[in-house]
Amino acid sequence: MGRLATLKEGFRSGKIGVTEYYKDFFSRVRVRNEKLNALLEIFEKDALERAVKFDQSKSTLGNLPLGALPIAIKDMISIRGQELNASSKILKGYRAPRSATVTERLEKDGAIFVGRANCDEFAMGSSNENTSFGPVKNPCALDRTAGGSSGGSAAAVAAELCVGALGTDTGGSIRLPAAFCGITGLKPTYGRVSRSGAIAFASSLDQIGPMADDALDCAHILQSIAGRDPRDATSMPVKTENYIEACKSFSLKGVKIGLPKEYFQKGGVDPEIEKNLQSNLKVLEKEGAIIREASIPHTPYGIAVYYLVATAEAASNLARYDGIRYGKRVEQFKSLKDLIMQTRSEGFGSEVKRRIMLGTFALSSGYYDAYYSKAQFVRSKLQSEFLNAFKEVDLLFTPVAPSTAFKIGEKVNDPLQMYLSDIYTVSINLAGVPAIAFPVGHDSQNLPIGGQFIAPPFAEAKLLGAAAAFERAQPFQRRLAL
Ligand code: GLN
Prior knowledge:
Elements: H1 3-13, H2 18-36, E1 39-42, H3 44-56, H4 58-63, E2 70-74, H5 101-108, E3 112-117, E4 137-138, E5 141-145, H6 151-158, E6 164-169, H7 175-181, E7 184-187, E8 207-212, H8 215-225, H9 243-249, E9 256-260, H10 271-286, E10 290-294, H11 302-317, H12 336-347, H13 350-363, H14 368-392, E11 395-399, H15 415-420, H16 426-431, E12 435-442, E13 448-454, H17 460-473
Helix pairs in contact: 2-3, 6-7, 8-9, 8-17, 9-17, 11-13, 11-14
Glutamine (GLN) is lined by residues 123-126, 149, 168-173, 201, 310, 422.
């Protein structure tokens, strides 16, 4: 059982006193966060105040599904009254005027927010090095990246600075850091979780999702945040399921699992990961799953399509940071245009600027049809290929990333190499289907390896259930370097 479910039991039964727990907790958090830079801000005072209230009224604790549990929130998601920076200088000083729907729901269910998690600037990156506030270090190997963009959330979970966290995933940002840090992370179906109050990067791809020790802990968080929200027109009126129950009762017996052959082509994935996946297949078979070959033929175009669609949408979404409405504004300027130009030049980091330029180019007259329309066309192909694959199998199984956590600095000056880290994750966002990353072993350097299940739209119960069944069959022990 993960720490979230365990602590929930402890608080409920009264075996663990909430205030006592938090006092001890924050002394650990401060020390570890110094080393990792996972949290940009620790909400110690607010959290302790809430903890005391919980102890004063024990009865409320029992009624709340997430009563008093410490949760970290990626710096892309609003918490009323708190700073919200998207790890960017341009938003320094900006405070969220209201909570996102997800944070409102978590709070209503009793969660205590313990910190604001570092991430890549505007969630653009795969290593959490594109942040204005220093990279996040991987708790399993301090010279390595935690993955990105939700690296702060992943490192915070892995290093026990919280029992669960929210991340956002536009092209892999929950799953890649989950894999690098040896935790579990779910990217829900597009439309399963409200995006209201989250900073938009690429609106047709962004989803908020849970990150925690294991599938069951993720299920507890998803149960709270999933479901239709009138404040987000793209959140779908599809009934939620009992995700927690699914994790407890799901069996892999008779479940058909497809291996998309394009994901396993020679030379793509690190040989150690490949070898590990072969042994995972044995575990799945032993649990009664039926393994089959599957195919998503347009997979090789995923990266190109993603970086066109995502940059185009980012260029439009980030137009609002003009120095007038949000955060930073330069002090000296000659005209309105100069104010906007200077604020954006000083405020945005280089990866964000690169994407705004790429996206603006892809959308400009004359190039729109050549690039953007073509990308949308291939995107619809990918979508139908996933749906077709699910006519034959229940789930797909793939690696999360072609490598385990790489060294800090290794890819930061080579954007193309960095973009290739997302090769196994981006198509899933393009297709809008849900996927879960969960730890499946270690490589020879003791670094965690992640496996990924992909499911049909809105089949999160099956997805979480299958990951939970795997985690039961082959429990994972994280090896921290702290
Ligand atoms: N690494 C991808 C990118 O840089 C995905 C980011 C994300 O999912 N937010 O765009």
